[in-house]
């Protein structure tokens, strides 16, 4: 999608600090980290949010969670949180599906 920030990051039009990449997804550090380790994992295919996941695109979500699990092991993250904000009230500011992966500090529950 031409006016999507994360599609531009995937295309390399906007620089980012890459954590991992394969044919289906891209992981990069958040520009405004909310924990000592905070990266985002996004599908390369443009999906607006969790609210747009259906039979036609659900496989990439399972793939992303496998990638998160592998990266957590490689980065030595024993405890971490995965968050996906869906919609304005939940705090979604970029309308391309993304999973925040946060680690390295105590997390509150319920989240604020
Ligand atoms: P949301 O608020 O939609 O759940 O998460 C969007 C995230 O994208 C935010 O945590 C924000 O800091 C991050 N972000 C916004 N613009 C950029 C950018 O240009 N580069 C990177 N690396 N992260 C960004
Ligand atoms: Zn996009």
How would you describe this structure to a colleague?
It holds the Pfam family HIT. The active site is at residue 98. This is Histidine triad nucleotide-binding protein. With 112 residues, the chain is of the alpha+beta class. Helix content is 21%, strand content 21%. The protein has 2 helices and 5 strands. It has helices at 5-11, 59-74; strands spanning 18-21, 25-29, 37-43, 81-83, 99-103. It has a 5-stranded antiparallel β-sheet with strand order 1-2-3-5-4, with helices on one face. Strand 1 and strand 2 (25-29) form a beta hairpin. Residues 1, 4, 6-7, 46, 96 line the site of zinc ion.
Topology as a string of helices (H) and strands (E): HEEEHEE
Q: Using the CA coordinates, give the radius of gyration.
A: 14 Å
Tally the helices.
2
- Rounded to the nearest angstrom, the distance between the terminal CA atoms is 31 Å
Give the tally of β-strands: 5
Global structural class: alpha+beta
Global mean pLDDT: 97
Domain HIT: 5-112
Motif (Histidine triad motif): 96-100
GO molecular function, one term: catalytic activity
Protein name: Histidine triad nucleotide-binding protein
């Amino acid at each position: 999608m031409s006016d999507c920030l994360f599609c531009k990051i995937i295309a390399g039009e906007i620089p980012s600090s890459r954590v991992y990449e394969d044919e289906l997804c891209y992981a990069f550090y958040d520009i405004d980290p909310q924990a000592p380790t905070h990266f985002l994992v996004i599908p390369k295919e443009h999906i607006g949010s969790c609210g747009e996941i259906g039979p036609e695109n659900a496989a990439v979500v399972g793939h992303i969670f496998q990638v998160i699990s592998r990266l957590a092991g490689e980065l030595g993250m024993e405890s971490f949180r995965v968050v996906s904000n869906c919609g304005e009230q939940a705090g979604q500011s970029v309308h391309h599906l993304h999973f925040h992966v946060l680690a390295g500090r105590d997390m509150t529950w319920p989240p604020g």
